[in-house]
Amino acid sequence: MAPKLTVIGTGYLGATHAAAMAELGFEVLALDVVPEKIELLTAGRVPMYEPGLEELLAKHVAGIEGSTGRLRFTMDYAEVAEFGDVHFVCVNTPQKHGEYGCDMSFVDAAMESLGKHLTRPALVVGKSTVPVGSADRLAARLAELAPAGEGVELAWNPEFLREGFAVQDTLHPDRIVVGVRGERAEALLREVYATPVAEGTPFVVTDYPTSELVKTAANSFLATKISFINAMAEICEAAGGDVAKLAEAIGYDERIGAKFLRAGVGFGGGCLPKDIRAFMARAGELGVDQALTFLREVDSINMRQRGQAVELAREACGGDFLGKRIGVLGAAFKPDSDDVRDSPALNVAGQIHLQGGQVTVYDPKGMANARRVFPTLGYAESALEAVRGADVVLHLTEWREFRELDAAELGRVVSRRQLIDGRNALDGSVWRAAGWTYRAMGRPRA
Ligand code: UDX
């Protein structure tokens, strides 16, 4: 009989994983400790914008007309422990308040609550991004806690999903990585992931520390790639080069690859920034901080890009934001997401606002979250309204909607036709033809 699965934590990762596992044919029981989340998910809805996820929930959540009924939700750990053969722990691991390290309190609490109810053999699978060494510690803790004793095993199985592509990335991952200690754990995970593996997804089996490190290493590499191209953008600015052409040209080298070479206001979101900081903190604890000193530079280049966007805007405003109107296109940390966590767009908008500029922001999906975290900024219901009367327009999240904007129409409502493309994603020639000065980061002015 197919193993029964549970998912603990129904945030981005957990909600998507639960729905994807139901799609693969498993019976799934998902738990969260927040009643509002459970209520929403039981109705087939999600508290964030993620293309395709609500459709998948509608297809599988029990009680929804026409669904397979394979996916249910609960708040009860005892029910989860009783139900599941494999428990996926998907709670979040935010950055600690005021320091670089990773806050493990949600993972620890989930393991404690689950562990003490495990009266029958089960595999607990950690999916959260954790500092290396956590799985070792948690395996020892589970052995102490679980009434089933040695019948309970732990595995680590990092997740690489991108926001905006969460469903696709979960159902068709690039690779599946499992850190295990025993053959039984590996066999169970092979059963769970049989479909993607049959479709050709590589299945990498390793130990606990390596599996934990794969995730932080992957995110650190991606962050490094972005900061590298942003450093090249600074050089291009100084030397009169064009970073977009440079990225295209180096990207044809297969060893380098064309992806993640878009220069601009840099990376943000709930993963990349906090993961590289937590990685540095952990390396320090392990006494190998030297190995990751370059990540400090990756972080500071990234933050510098935000400052540079502010300076470009200031220059366009004649050296001072006071009395100037700034229209900001974008608030989410990237397109196809409503997530504003550590968003470069919102950070730049906020800096200009705090320096006296009159900022109006519009984002296709991120407005509610942006209003919540930065209520003092001005907001508009459309791109056209956001730029009305603006002395300068900043393009900071590369939504398709912004690429399709009519440069001439916007030109009629602004005070001055000045555009700063902080994402190198708009067609400068079109904007220039409509009478705008188009300025992109790391590109020639003319
Ligand atoms: C990332 C990883 O890609 C994913 O594998 C991991 O599981 C979680 O973290 P995500 O945070 O959803 O996913 O965003 P991603 O698409 O990686 O983009 C991260 C940030 O980098 C965004 O702010 C994006 O705008 C920025 N970025 C990306 C650039 O500035 N330039 C690029 O060329 C690519």
TrEMBL record:
<dbReference type="GO" id="GO:0051287">
    <property type="term" value="F:NAD binding"/>
</dbReference>
<feature type="binding site">
    <location>
        <begin position="260"/>
        <end position="264"/>
    </location>
    <ligand>
        <name>substrate</name>
    </ligand>
</feature>
<keyword id="KW-0520">NAD</keyword>
<dbReference type="GO" id="GO:0000271">
    <property type="term" value="P:polysaccharide biosynthetic process"/>
</dbReference>
<keyword id="KW-0560">Oxidoreductase</keyword>
<dbReference type="InterPro" id="IPR014027">
    <property type="entry name" value="UDP-Glc/GDP-Man_DH_C"/>
</dbReference>
<comment type="similarity">
    <text>Belongs to the UDP-glucose/GDP-mannose dehydrogenase family.</text>
</comment>
<dbReference type="InterPro" id="IPR036291">
    <property type="entry name" value="NAD(P)-bd_dom_sf"/>
</dbReference>
<feature type="binding site">
    <location>
        <position position="163"/>
    </location>
    <ligand>
        <name>NAD(+)</name>
    </ligand>
</feature>
<protein>
    <recommendedName>
        <fullName>UDP-glucose 6-dehydrogenase</fullName>
        <ecNumber>1.1.1.22</ecNumber>
    </recommendedName>
</protein>
<dbReference type="InterPro" id="IPR001732">
    <property type="entry name" value="UDP-Glc/GDP-Man_DH_N"/>
</dbReference>
<feature type="binding site">
    <location>
        <position position="129"/>
    </location>
    <ligand>
        <name>NAD(+)</name>
    </ligand>
</feature>
<feature type="binding site">
    <location>
        <position position="341"/>
    </location>
    <ligand>
        <name>NAD(+)</name>
    </ligand>
</feature>
<dbReference type="Pfam" id="PF00984">
    <property type="entry name" value="UDPG_MGDP_dh"/>
</dbReference>
<feature type="binding site">
    <location>
        <position position="93"/>
    </location>
    <ligand>
        <name>NAD(+)</name>
    </ligand>
</feature>
<feature type="binding site">
    <location>
        <position position="334"/>
    </location>
    <ligand>
        <name>substrate</name>
    </ligand>
</feature>
<dbReference type="InterPro" id="IPR017476">
    <property type="entry name" value="UDP-Glc/GDP-Man"/>
</dbReference>
<feature type="binding site">
    <location>
        <position position="268"/>
    </location>
    <ligand>
        <name>substrate</name>
    </ligand>
</feature>
<dbReference type="InterPro" id="IPR028357">
    <property type="entry name" value="UDPglc_DH_bac"/>
</dbReference>
<feature type="binding site">
    <location>
        <position position="215"/>
    </location>
    <ligand>
        <name>substrate</name>
    </ligand>
</feature>
<comment type="pathway">
    <text>Nucleotide-sugar biosynthesis; UDP-alpha-D-glucuronate biosynthesis; UDP-alpha-D-glucuronate from UDP-alpha-D-glucose: step 1/1.</text>
</comment>
<dbReference type="GO" id="GO:0006065">
    <property type="term" value="P:UDP-glucuronate biosynthetic process"/>
</dbReference>
<dbReference type="InterPro" id="IPR008927">
    <property type="entry name" value="6-PGluconate_DH-like_C_sf"/>
</dbReference>
<dbReference type="GO" id="GO:0003979">
    <property type="term" value="F:UDP-glucose 6-dehydrogenase activity"/>
</dbReference>
<feature type="binding site">
    <location>
        <position position="274"/>
    </location>
    <ligand>
        <name>NAD(+)</name>
    </ligand>
</feature>
<dbReference type="Pfam" id="PF03721">
    <property type="entry name" value="UDPG_MGDP_dh_N"/>
</dbReference>
<feature type="domain" description="UDP-glucose/GDP-mannose dehydrogenase C-terminal">
    <location>
        <begin position="327"/>
        <end position="428"/>
    </location>
</feature>
<dbReference type="InterPro" id="IPR014026">
    <property type="entry name" value="UDP-Glc/GDP-Man_DH_dimer"/>
</dbReference>
<feature type="binding site">
    <location>
        <position position="37"/>
    </location>
    <ligand>
        <name>NAD(+)</name>
    </ligand>
</feature>
<feature type="active site" description="Nucleophile">
    <location>
        <position position="271"/>
    </location>
</feature>
<dbReference type="InterPro" id="IPR036220">
    <property type="entry name" value="UDP-Glc/GDP-Man_DH_C_sf"/>
</dbReference>
<feature type="binding site">
    <location>
        <begin position="160"/>
        <end position="163"/>
    </location>
    <ligand>
        <name>substrate</name>
    </ligand>
</feature>
<feature type="binding site">
    <location>
        <position position="32"/>
    </location>
    <ligand>
        <name>NAD(+)</name>
    </ligand>
</feature>
<dbReference type="Pfam" id="PF03720">
    <property type="entry name" value="UDPG_MGDP_dh_C"/>
</dbReference>
